[in-house]
Write a structure and sequence with these properties.
mainly alpha; globular
């Protein structure tokens, strides 16, 4: 059942993005929608978010593992 839910959510967000929507809402990107954010936002924007996160939270203490994670490969 969980696999079917995951596939359905992937299809839903693919359609939302196709229609010009976004994976964010008034509270930003939650953990549940985090996996679709890279599809909705350019790599440049992702890098900007990472740079801001690094500048404002260099120790990674604020909301660890949520929304913007600092990639070790960038």
């Amino acid at each position: 059942m969980r696999a079917k839910v995951e596939v359905t959510l992937d299809e839903l967000f693919a359609k939302v993005l196709e229609w010009g929507g976004a994976s964010t809402g008034e509270h930003g990107v939650g953990i549940a929608k985090q996996r679709w954010w890279p599809l909705a936002v350019s790599e440049t924007s992702q890098l900007l978010h990472e740079a801001l996160k690094r500048a404002l939270d260099p120790a990674g203490l604020l909301n660890p593992d949520k929304f913007v994670t600092i990639s070790a490969t960038r």
